[in-house]
């Protein structure tokens, strides 16, 4: 939809909505994708909510590691909800439109939560570094509830500040058409290409900010794990090495999945993958990884498994009393 705007210095029609191309294909394909993604979305929300509730209600999990995990699970709930409901709705609609400010808002929350994810993962790696490399000081440093709160809030504020400047600049851009986005959500890159003004300064700002955030957090994570692995290898007993490594296996798996997807999308040489492949990898990053996280953090985590078993047993007791 467009409306006339004779006073604007750019073309006479300003875009008020965008069309998301999504995943083109037959009706059968759209129906299949809708069913699969709906199931994945429900499982993702359910799994992460369970982790948050278990951490809140089981006092044995009131430790810094699980406090950050609870934050991370809550973030994943917000992250998938930013994209999935609109994507599911588009599978059922012939016209896959999204209003201008809805699109800009979706882009904002996608990058805000995505940036926060990097900060939180780096914070979690710092927590594991202290626990394994400085166990005698860990209780003094990390068991201070205020310090944990400051680290968590710093991650969320860091994500917000990362996108603050670029959000203001993008919201002020004029869009004059075409209005078709070749993606299943509103991404900043395609949006900038549709603006009817020179966006190179904004592109450079986005690139520099994204590079600083990704590189700084990945550097902290890599350095933490270099020290962690070095410390674990010095443990004399095999059982001690396994126990120490098991405390950070889940986090390391999530880090590898996230950075692997980001590297494929943004770091690979241009032209080495199609737009369709980018969509598939983006789908893995935005839906599959949040779905896997609850399983990754529970399958090899005895404390979470015990908390789940106790919660299920307590539920059965209450059901029996009824």
From TrEMBL:
Pfam families xrefs: 7tm_4 (PF13853)
GO cellular component, one term: plasma membrane
Membrane topology, from the record: Multi-pass membrane protein
Domain G-protein coupled receptors family 1 profile: 47-297
Keyword Cytoplasm annotated: no
Transmembrane segments: 33-56, 68-88, 108-126, 147-171, 204-233, 245-268, 280-299
Gene Ontology MF: a single term: G protein-coupled receptor activity
Subcellular location: Cell membrane
Source domain of life: Eukaryota
Keywords: Cell membrane, G-protein coupled receptor, Membrane, Olfaction, Receptor, Sensory transduction, Transducer, Transmembrane, Transmembrane helix
Family membership noted in the UniProt record: Belongs to the G-protein coupled receptor 1 family.
Alphabetical list of PANTHER family matching this protein: OLFACTORY RECEPTOR, OLFACTORY RECEPTOR 6X1
Protein name: Olfactory receptor
Source organism per UniProt: Sphenodon punctatus (Tuatara)
């Amino acid at each position: 939809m467009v409306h006339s705007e004779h006073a604007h210095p750019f073309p006479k029609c300003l875009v008020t909505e965008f069309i998301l191309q999504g995943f083109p294909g037959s009706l059968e394909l759209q129906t299949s994708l809708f069913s699969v993604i709906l199931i994945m979305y429900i499982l993702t929300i359910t799994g992460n909510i369970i982790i948050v509730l278990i951490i809140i209600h089981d006092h044995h999990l009131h430790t810094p590691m699980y406090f950050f995990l609870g934050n991370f699970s809550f973030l994943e709930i917000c992250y998938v909800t930013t994209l999935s409901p609109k994507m599911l709705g588009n599978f059922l609609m012939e016209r896959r439109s999204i209003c201008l400010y809805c699109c800009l808002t979706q882009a904002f929350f996608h990058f805000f939560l995505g940036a926060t994810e990097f900060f939180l993962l780096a914070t979690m790696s710092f927590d594991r570094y202290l626990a394994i490399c400085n166990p005698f000081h860990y209780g003094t440093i990390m068991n201070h509830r205020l310090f944990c709160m400051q680290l968590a809030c710093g991650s969320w504020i860091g994500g917000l500040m990362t996108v603050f400047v670029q959000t203001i600049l993008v919201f002020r851009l004029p869009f004059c058409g075409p209005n078709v986005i070749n993606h299943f959500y509103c991404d900043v890159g395609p949006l900038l290409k549709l603006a009817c003004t020179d966006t190179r300064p904004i592109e450079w700002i986005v690139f520099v900010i994204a590079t600083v955030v990704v590189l700084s957090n990945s550097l902290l994570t890599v350095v933490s794990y270099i020290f962690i692995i070095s410390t674990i290898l010095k443990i004399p007993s095999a059982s001690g090495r396994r126990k120490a490594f098991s405390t950070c296996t889940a986090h390391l798996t999530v880090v590898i999945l996230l950075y692997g997807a980001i590297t494929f999308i943004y770091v690979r040489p241009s032209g080495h993958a199609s737009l369709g492949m980018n969509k598939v990898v983006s789908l893995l990053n935005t839906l599959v990884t949040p779905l896997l996280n609850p399983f990754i953090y529970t399958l090899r985590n005895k404390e979470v498994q015990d908390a789940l078993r106790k919660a299920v047993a307590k539920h059965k007791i209450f059901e029996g009393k009824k």
